[in-house]
Amino acid sequence: MYENSVISLPGAAAGGPLVLLVEDERSIAEPFSRALQRAGFRTTVARTGAEAISQFAARAPDVILLDLALPDGDGREVCRRIRRDSGVPIIMVTASGTVTDRVVGLELGADDYVVKPFSTGEVIARIRAVLRRGHPKPPDGEALRVQDVRIDSGARRVWRGDVELELTRKEFDLLLRLARDAGRVVTREALMSDVWDMNWFGSTKTLDVHIGWLRRKLGDDPADPGYIRTVRGIGFCLAAEWERAQ
Ligand code: CA
Prior knowledge:
The structure is a single chain. The protein folds into two domains: 6-134, Rossmann fold (3-Layer(aba) Sandwich); 143-244, Winged helix-like DNA-binding domain superfamily/Winged helix DNA-binding domain (Arc Repressor Mutant, subunit A, Orthogonal Bundle). It is built from nine helices and 14 strands. α2 (49-59) runs parallel beside α3 (75-85) and α6 (169-180) crosses α8 (205-218). It is an alpha/beta fold. It has a five-stranded parallel β-sheet, with helices on both faces. It has helices spanning 26-38, 49-59, 75-85, 99-107, 120-133, 169-180, 188-195, 205-218, 241-244, and strands at 18-22, 42-46, 63-67, 69-70, 73-74, 90-94, 112-115, 143-146, 149-152, 157-160, 163-165, 185-187, 228-231, 235-238. Helix content is 39%, strand content 22%. Bound molecules: calcium ion. Residues 24-25, 67, 69-70 line the site of calcium ion.
């Protein structure tokens, strides 16, 4: 029933990154879609949350621009559902831009957010930024490198520079989870559920204790952490190299 209202504008550049634009207001979606195409992106538009989910599954977009207010519900629910399966970059679009919206959006795994009315140039710059950042999700067994930390997920070994670190099983799992989303905030809820296989119901003291041990082993200075950054009330972020370049 949603298929008729899916529009995929013609003239898209072949081979450019595919942007899924989730926006019910035609007066925004159509000109913006054309602007993206002029900038070298391919676009596909969904006008409802349900369409967004089905287009995400069918088209595997490279980035999603997600309006918060949709005719069939809240964009945050769409974000949460997509995040269950995918690390695809998501930029939330909000009308109000309150701190709460931003926090909730990031908590659900959005990578960035923009406030309406936005300029096309600004959003295109944000899209390019999240695409540059990338979201490496290597399968088990591959090596992963974040700053000077190298993780061999198959052998479950970690080096900082040339020095091998002795991590416990949970410390290793925690570091690997953060490293797979390096540069992005991983929520406390996600860490509890992925590393401890537990539903999150309030207390995450265990998590803080393990983060503390991991920081010590990585040599993080609590006052100026170079590796694991705390995002208060949300979670933790393993700083990727690009973030440290000033
Ligand atoms: Ca809307």
